[in-house]
Protein: 3-isopropylmalate dehydrogenase
Amino acid sequence: KKEYRVVAIPGDGIGPEITKVGIEVINKAVEKYDTKINWVEMDAGGCAIDKFGEPLPAKTLEECKKSDAVFLGAVGGWKWDTLPGNKRPEKALLGLRQGLDLFCNLRPAKVFEELKDASPLKNSIVDKGIDILVVRELTGGIYFGEKGRKGEGEDLVGYDVMQYSKKEVKRIAKVAFEAAMKRNKKLTSVEKANVLEVSRVWREAILEIAPEYPEVELNHMYVDNAAMQLVRAPEQFDVIVTGNMFGDILSDEASIITGSIGMLASASLRDDNFGMYEPIHGSAPDIANQNKANPIAQVLSGAMMLRYSFGMNEAADDIENAVNKVLKEGFRTGDIYSEGKVSLGTKEMGEAILKYL
Ligand code: NAD
Ligand code: IPM
Ligand code: MN
Structure:
C-alpha cells in the first residue's frame, strides 16, 4: 500500500467546512488505488493568531516541509482586518508560499458544459469555449518587494515595490511555455510594459525564452486590455503567464466567467513534486458556518494534488468525473444555482460527490 503524508490547513471562514469535504473525497478516491493519505492537521491564518498569537506558527511550516503536499482551505476574516500587515492571517499564506518556494501558481479556468448559464457572459460568448490556464508567478513581484510607510500626517506614504529579476521571470516562463506545449500552444504574457520598467524587463526575459519554444504562438498584452479581452472574447486565451498581482486579479476574473469563484482550484508548485493545493477563492466570511459554501473548488484542488504531486492521474480523473456527474444531475450550491436545479448545502454537495465517485 502506498502512503503519503499531507498537511491539511483548514484555516478560517468557510475553510474548515470545505476542507472537510475535500479530505473525504480524496480519501475515497485514493482508496481504490490502494493508497492511503496520512493527514496532519495544522493551524495557520486567523485561527493561529487566536491560538498562538501569530498567523504562521513555525511548527506549521516545519510540518509542511516534512510532508508530500499541503492541502489548504482559506485564511482571513473581518475579525483580523485591522491588524498590521505582518500580523494578518494573509501573511500565513504568503509565508507558506515563500517558505516552501512555491513560485508557480497554476489556476485553470474552464467552463463546465452544465454551468454555462451560471456564467455572467452571454451564451454566444461562452459557446465559443472557455479553457484558460493562468500561470501566476507566486513568490515575487509587488507582494514580496520592499514595503513600508514613511513620513507622517498628510505626508504619510505607503509603498510596495514591484520588481522582477530576469531569472525569476524565466523560471515561470518556462513552466508556462511547457504548459502551452501540452495544450493549444498559445501563450499570452500579460504585463504593463507601456508604463512599468519591471514589465519591460519581464517582456525581455519572456522574449529570451521564446526561441526555445518555436511551436508556441506567443503574444504580449497589457493588463488593462487583458482584463477587457477576458470578458469580450475569452476563447482567444490558452495559457496566460503573468506576475503575482496581475495573476491574482485576472484569475478572479477568469473564475467568474466560468460560472463561480467557488469552482476554481489551484496548485502552487516548485521544481519537485511537492505542492500546495487550495481554491483560488478566500474564506468567504459572509457565508461562513452556514453550510452554504461551494466545496467544488476545494475538491478539484484535491484532484490537482493527486495529479501533480502523486502522479495519480486516474484517481484525479475519477474526482473530476464525479463532479461532472453531480452537475449533470442538476445538483447546485447557491453560487451556481439556477432555476429548476436542486439546491444543496456544502455537506450535501460533498455527499453527492462521494456517491458518484
Ligand atoms: P472571497 O473569495 O472570500 O469572497 C468573495 C465572494 O465570493 C464572497 O461573496 C463569497 O461569499 C463568495 N465565495 C467565495 N468562495 C465561495 C465558495 N466556495 N462558495 C460560494 N461562494 C463563495 O474574497 P474576499 O471576500 O475578498 O475575502 C475574504 C477573506 O478571504 C479576506 O480576509 C481575504 O484576505 C481572504 N482571502 C484568502 C484567500 C486564501 O486563503 N487563499 C484568497 C482570497 C482571499
Ligand atoms: C489568493 C489570495 C491571496 C493572494 C491573499 C489572501 C494573500 O487573494 O490566493 O488569490 O493575493 O495571493
Ligand atoms: Mn486572490
Q: What stands out?
A: DSSP finds twelve helices and 14 strands in the chain. The chain has two domains: 1-106+263-357, 120-257. Residues 76, 90, 93-94, 248, 280, 282 surround 3-isopropylmalic acid (ligand 2) (CB under 6 Å). The first strand starts at residue 2 and ends at 11.
